[in-house]
Amino acid sequence: MQPNATYTFASAGIAALGCTFILVQYGYNRSLWLDESLLAINLIQKDYRALLLPLDNNQVAPILFLWIERFFVQFFGPGEMSLRAFPVLGALLSIVLFWSISRKIIPDNATRLLAQALFVLSPSLIYFATEVKQYMADVLVLLAVYHALLSSFRYRMAVLGLLGAASVFLSHAGVLILFTAAIYLFWEPANKHNPVQSRFAAIPVIAMWFVCFSICYVFFIDGHPHKAEMLDYWQQAFPPGDLLSRDFVVWVLKKTVMVFTGIMAFPQEYLLFVPFIGVYVAGVAHLARAKRYALLYLLTFPALLHAVIAYFRVYPFDHRLILYQLPLFVLTVSIGFGAVKDALVRVKGLSRAPLLFLLPAGIYLFQVLRDFPTEREEIKRSIRFMNESIAPDDAVYVYHGAAEAFRYYRQTRRVDFGNPAVFGRRHDGHPAVFAEDLAPFRGRTWVLFSHLNPFQTQAEAAFILDCCSGRGVLLKSFQTKGSAVYLFDLQEDK
């Protein structure tokens, strides 16, 4: 069915709404949270050559992503808006690519509109579009490669070659996407009349991808000094070794829930996400029944491949690391809704079955609006409170979860005061470390917190505040989303 004027208008409206959410979130300019500040410090302190070396703060990111980010910092300054410009541009371009891909694979206008709405209104897309991390680049790489795969134009193979070459340096997930694409090029040759010629034409392209990945692996992956720390940090993202164990089944169930409540952002309340798992299965079944095996492969194989390499502890299977598969989950769920709608029309004769599509789109819109613009760790507000009240002789203690964000805002001159700051240590199972850090302080002392969302850090903050309250008097305080600051008048340790 060809798109009509109503469909075109609705499609443009949905895209405009999604872009508006992203741009408003970008303009809101929330504070950098811990993970962003850890990477941001590298980006503002290191030049292009230094970024070729392992990053500080146990950070790992693709080199091309780092260079693009450094370009924005160099030419537009070190502020948050510069750091977030590339992810925002990636998200806006992803919306265009997703719209084009959905036109190629979904014949029904209503189903295409649903897919577009679920993608552009996705809370995951809107949030990560303004995250100073590489995850939106992952989404862009998948959509760009898939768009070229599903298109037919004169220089398609040359474009695929260049896209793949850039992908391995721009996205850690790029190699998984290209592995999927390589199999597809042999399975579904572009020239159906001369498939052998098409497959031969793919060989130099795939060889080019392999060479580029080999270079990337040798220089940026093999023997990386942060590998041990990364494996330890992501240990919950690797499945248990025994495939027949109860622990493995529990891991699979947890990751399934993560996909539908984390990546897809369907509500956890009252298990409302469970029907959408069924709709996803309906989408898979519909593609299999319609014998659209190549499309079924493109939509489902990356998740299986990612799970397999996670089993071998190569690349973790976790929320933001599989964000690049958001378009694939959205397309499959939308196709499933289309199949359910067609079944209702066919079996029950429900002429208004397309209204079923309003349910998931409405849920997404509600999910976005109830926490928009998104805030995470608003340390800038705490710093502003300090700027207005701090005296020249006041001491400053910065909780370890706020240290990198404080350093970033001091370097970007958001911190107006020049008082020396003492950065707290991690306790590593010994919370008495906090009391030791605070023991030398006397008189007016500011205690700055950030990264207070996780349960453990809230408990640590409570311990520190108890130590200060036992030694002195609270003079001022300020609390905001994920951050807080307190001014104590501390006496001798009792």
Overview of the structural elements:
Strands 2-1-3-5-4 form a 5-stranded mixed beta sheet. Helix 18 links the parallel strand 1 and strand 2. The protein has 2 domains: 335 residues, no CATH class; 112 residues, D-Maltodextrin-Binding Protein, domain 2. It is an alpha/beta fold and 494 residues long. Helix content is 62%, strand content 6%.
List keywords for this structure.
494 residues, alpha/beta, D-Maltodextrin-Binding Protein, domain 2, 2 domains, five-stranded mixed sheet, globular
Write a concise synopsis of the structure shown.
The chain has helices at 5-28, 34-45, 63-76, 80-105, 109-120, 123-128, 135-149, 156-170, 174-187, 195-221, 227-233, 246-263, 274-289, 293-311, 326-348, 358-369, 379-389, 403-411, 432-438, 455-471, and strands spanning 395-398, 421-423, 443-450, 472-480, 483-490. It is of the alpha/beta class. The chain starts with a helix and ends with a strand.
